[in-house]
Amino acid sequence: MTGADMTEADMTGADMTGADMTGAEAVRKVALVTGASRSVGKGIACALGSAGWTVYVTGRGPVGVDGPLDRTAEIVTERGGHGIAVQCDHRDDSQIRDLFAAIAREQNGRLDVLVNNVWAAPKGFAGFTEPFWQRPVEDWDSLVGVGLRAHYVASVEAARMMVPRSTGMIVNISSFGTRGHLHSVLYGMSKAGLDKMAADMAVELRGTGVTTLSLWPGLVKNEAMLARGLDNFQGFPLADAETPEFVGRVVVALASDPEVNRRSGSTLITAETGPEYGVVDVDGNQPISHRAFFGGGPVFGG
C-alpha cells in the first residue's frame, strides 16, 4: 500500500468538503474506488482527492513501481486528499475481503463511499464486433464475473462496514447498455444487473442510513478516446462527451448531500444529476444526457 499527504482543491457544486471537523482536528472521509488506474475510476478518485478525501484505489497491476495506479494515488494526494494504491485482482473473492479488512484496520472501521467501477474486457476484445454465438462462452467470466459478481462481493463487504456506523454510500458505475443494446449481450446483462442490485439492496438497507445508487455516464472522453484522435464515437460528438472527472464530481456532490438517502435504490444519469448540484465539467461545459437516444422513459427510482 502506498500513498502520502499534500495540497490543493477547488470543485464546482454543492458542499464538497471531505472532512468532518472535530474541534480543530479534521477527519478525512474515506472512499474506495475499484478499477482506478485510468478513465472513469481515475476521474472519480481524483475528484474525491480534490475534495480532501482519503481514497483507496485498486487495480490488478502492481503498485510501488510508478505505474498507472500509483499515479492515480499520487494525483489524489497532490490535490489535497490522501491516495492509497492497492493491488487487487477483483476476480478473487479472498483478495476483495483482504482489501476491506485492510481498510477497516487502517481507518478504524470507517468507509464512507464504495465506487464499484472495476471492469475487465473479454479475451480478444476488439470492440464487441461479433454476435454472441460467435463469441466464447468464457466472455461471461470477465463481463459478468468481474463486471457484476465482483461488485456484489465488494458491496457485501462495504455494507458490513457501513451498516454498524449507520452511514455510507455504495455506487455502481453502470451504463445506458441497460436501456438499449450496447457492445454485447453480456455487457448489457451485467449493467442491468448492477441497476437491479442497487435497487434491491436499497430495500434491504432501508433504515440503516446506507445508500445504494447506480450511475449511467454518457460517452466518456477518456484516454483511449483521445489517443485515437476521434471527434465522434458512434455518432456522438466528443465535444459533448463527459470527462472522467465530471463523473467524479457528481459522485462527490451525491456523497456531500445530507439527503442523498432519499435517492437510495435509484439509477441516475450523470449528465442529468450534475446540474441538480450545480456541477459542470472541467472545461465548464454541461454534458448532454443520452436518455432520449436510448428510448427515453424512466429508470429505477426515476
From TrEMBL:
InterPro entries: 5peptide_repeat, NAD(P)-bd_dom_sf, SDR_fam. The keyword Oxidoreductase applies. GO terms for molecular function: 3-oxoacyl-[acyl-carrier-protein] reductase (NADPH) activity. It comes from the Bacteria. Keywords: Oxidoreductase. It is an enzyme of class 1 (oxidoreductase). The keyword S-adenosyl-L-methionine does not apply. Its EC number is 1.1.1.100. Belongs to the short-chain dehydrogenases/reductases (SDR) family. This is Oxidoreductase. It comes from Rhodococcus coprophilus.
